Amino acid sequence: MTDSALDDLLVSLTDKALRHEAPSRDEALALLASDDDDLLDVVAAGSRVRRRYFGRRVKLNHLVNMKSGLCPEDCSYCSQRLGSKSEILKYSWISPGEAAGNAERAIAAGAKRVCLVASGRGPAERDVDRVADTIEAIKGAAPEVEVCVCLGLLKPGQADRLREAGADAYNHNLNTSEENYREICSTHTFDDRVETVKEAGRAGLSPCSGAIFGMGESDDDIVDVTFALRELDPDSVPVNFLIPFEGTPLGGRWDLTPQRCLRILALFRFVFPDVEVRLAGGREIHLRAMQPLALHLANSMFLGDYLTSEGQPGADDLQMISDAGFTVEGTGEQTLPGARHDLVTLRRRGAGTDLPANT
């Protein structure tokens, strides 16, 4: 791509993002195919959009793994999958008190959102009760904290119960394109995942849905899943990079470079200008020393460990944020810009009515 063509592309992407317009498919593909030599220009353009809507704030999130391993699903990327030979901790449900204690330590370190995650296809009714008790314990100690729940595929009525219990958001990632999905999972479908995200939104939970990259997907797959997510209109979008666990079908895949990760993050910032774009799993091993550049694109990140792998020490994350010229978002600060924030409130108030999830 010539310098002139790149300049025209970045101007168009930035202007469209600031007008809340999606890039064209050709523009998205051109961005992903841009040269490594042009990377700083790409990051600078995405950073302009990020600063417009989120300033220099970084929202911190923390995962609480409530149930680990022994999942009946066969998602190829997951160390907890059916048939996994990965050496991970396997345990049944931890108690609400233990989960709340874990959350309280993360909140004290600066986490503004706690994500309660459990392995499995989806929750049984008694599992929803356990999670409800955990939400009560967490919010009893820290009422201002956001609680996101991630329990897999939801049955009718379960999202409503979680909202009534005090959950603020529900996470269920699309992970990859519809076309590529059959290559990574056979025990449920792409449409199953889409329907769960919609169900969460209909119940008044803030939809959280993202993807995983580094699984052999093409640029077309990346654009497809990015646009599919935009159609769902989530309020937060986690961008994960494959952690290739030994003992899983994707254990040998090391396809990503730091530069490709940054181009993917830039695409998400242009497609989701006023949405919480979260730097999630795998950032440490794939971005490595270029993690600070990612903060110019993502306005949110996980603090601490992931489900079955260790993250960067929290103190190092906080130092990185400060050294890069960013600040940790406080509990009293509003994460989303005004119109998007108002939409989240409207969804919650409209739960159980005919108000569509993506009004």
UniProtKB/TrEMBL annotation:
Q: Give a Pfam family name.
A: Radical_SAM
- Radical SAM core domain location: 56-283
Gene Ontology MF term list: biotin synthase activity
Annotated SMART domains: BATS, Elp3
Pathway per its UniProt entry is: Cofactor biosynthesis; biotin biosynthesis; biotin from 7,8-diaminononanoate: step 2/2
The signal peptide here is none
Q: Which residues bind [2Fe-2S] cluster?
A: C115, C148, C208, R278
Keywords recorded for this protein, A-Z: 2Fe-2S, 4Fe-4S, Biotin biosynthesis, Iron, Iron-sulfur, Metal-binding, S-adenosyl-L-methionine, Transferase
| Domain of life, source organism | Bacteria
Q: Which reaction does it catalyse?
A: (4R,5S)-dethiobiotin + (sulfur carrier)-SH + 2 reduced [2Fe-2S]-[ferredoxin] + 2 S-adenosyl-L-methionine = (sulfur carrier)-H + biotin + 2 5'-deoxyadenosine + 2 L-methionine + 2 oxidized [2Fe-2S]-[ferredoxin]
Instruction: Give the EC number.
Output: 2.8.1.6
Describe how the cofactor binds.
Binds 1 [2Fe-2S] cluster. The cluster is coordinated with 3 cysteines and 1 arginine. Binds 1 [4Fe-4S] cluster. The cluster is coordinated with 3 cysteines and an exchangeable S-adenosyl-L-methionine.
Query: Per its UniProt record, what InterPro entries does this chain match?
Result: Aldolase_TIM, BATS_dom, Biotin_synth/BioAB, Biotin_synthase, Elp3/MiaA/NifB-like_rSAM, rSAM, rSAM_sf
User: Binding residues for [4Fe-4S] cluster, per the UniProt record?
Assistant: C71, C75, C78
Q: Which cofactor does it need?
A: [2Fe-2S] cluster; [4Fe-4S] cluster
Cited SUPFAM superfamilies: Radical SAM enzymes (SSF102114)
Query: What family is this?
Result: Belongs to the radical SAM superfamily. Biotin synthase family.
What HAMAP family does the database record attribute to this sequence? BioB
Q: Which NCBIfam families does this one have?
A: bioB
Assembly and binders: Homodimer.
According to its UniProt entry, what is the function of this protein?
Catalyzes the conversion of dethiobiotin (DTB) to biotin by the insertion of a sulfur atom into dethiobiotin via a radical-based mechanism.
What is the designated name of this protein? Answer: Biotin synthase
Species name: Actinomadura alba
Q: Which gene encodes it?
A: bioB
